[in-house]
């Protein structure tokens, strides 16, 4: 029992240090919800993300990472979709990852809805 008491002040000190010294990361995406016409440009921006240069950014669409080779802005604070298509509607999240791998923080989600013109899927007889 006496040995257990020795650890309590140390554990309390570590907990206080962690709560006082660790940066709490929470941020959002603007706009939180938007409705656009198909083929128009969409811009989503991370608001108040971690400013530390040791963070890398990655945009997710419906939980899947967007490819920076296809859209270089997928790895930045601001996502620009030059010509949005109907299948790109959905939920977008900006992920900030510490380059040392110790922290991963997701933004609040942004919902993008895309209005598209009617399509003729089959010509009438």
UniProtKB/TrEMBL annotation:
Keywords: Signal. InterPro entries: Ig-like_dom_sf (IPR036179), Ig-like_fold (IPR013783). SUPFAM superfamilies: Immunoglobulin. Residues 1-26 form the signal peptide. This is Ig-like domain-containing protein. It comes from Salpingoeca rosetta (strain ATCC 50818 / BSB-021). The lineage of its organism: Eukaryota, Choanoflagellata, Craspedida, Salpingoecidae, Salpingoeca.
């Amino acid at each position: 029992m006496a040995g257990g008491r020795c650890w309590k002040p140390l554990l309390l000190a570590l907990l206080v240090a962690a709560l006082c010294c660790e940066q709490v990361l929470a941020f959002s995406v603007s706009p939180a919800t938007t409705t656009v016409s198909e083929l128009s440009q969409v811009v989503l921006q991370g608001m108040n993300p971690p400013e530390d240069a040791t963070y890398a950014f990655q945009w997710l669409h419906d939980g899947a990472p967007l490819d920076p080779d296809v859209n270089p802005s997928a790895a930045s604070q601001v996502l620009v979709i030059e010509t949005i298509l109907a299948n790109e509607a959905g939920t977008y999240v900006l992920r900030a990852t510490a380059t040392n791998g110790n922290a991963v923080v997701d933004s609040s989600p942004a919902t993008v809805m895309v209005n598209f013109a009617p399509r003729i899927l089959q010509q009438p007889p």
